[in-house]
């Protein structure tokens, strides 16, 4: 299946990344909207965050695959060239590290039922850095998104099915953890100042 998924080489990988990025843009916009009223929307924030986990993992995997193939000198990936040096050396590592931090601290907060303390501060701080780096990443990659989605590359249906299956897995994960998110909101309501994000 992996061979069929990436049939089409670097173009197929770029298209899978674009499909997943499109899903991410929608889900991240929904997640961002919850921050405006985090106290009342905490269960929604946690639900969308958990839904995002498998989708984010697939995006990291598809971009990681491109990086791996490029640095292993796979001819087609080398021919397409690397991203701009600043994006590759500075922005991408910050995006990856802060993505892991934001989601790891978010999952930990949900698992530990915490709404205040050091972990909340780390979650917020990593989010601020993540937002800056990811905004720069999106602005530089957005012009290529539509082009990658429109391109006719063998295996598109399979790539869409994989992205859809991963999104469905995220939905199941979010539903399973919803009771914990509801409980977290109850705990948050007891703390003054939690809404200041």
Summarize the SSE layout with pairings:
Elements: H1 2-5, H2 9-35, H3 38-71, H4 75-80, H5 85-112, H6 118-150, H7 156-189
Helix pairs in contact: 2-3, 2-6, 2-7, 3-5, 3-7, 5-6
Summarize the structure.
By secondary structure, the protein is mainly α. The protein has 7 helices and no strands. 84% of the residues lie in helices and 0% in strands.
Description of the structure:
With 197 residues, the protein is mostly helical. The protein has one domain (9-189). It has seven helices and no strands. It is globular and about 55 Å long. It starts with a helix and ends in an 8-residue tail after the last helix. The model is unreliable at 192-197 (pLDDT under 50).
Helices and strands, in order, run as: HHHHHHH
Category by helix and strand content: mainly alpha
Q: Provide the low-confidence segments as ranges.
A: 192-197
The overall pLDDT, averaged over residues, is 89
Task: Please give a handful of descriptors for the protein shown.
single chain; 197 residues; mainly alpha; 7 helices; disordered C terminus
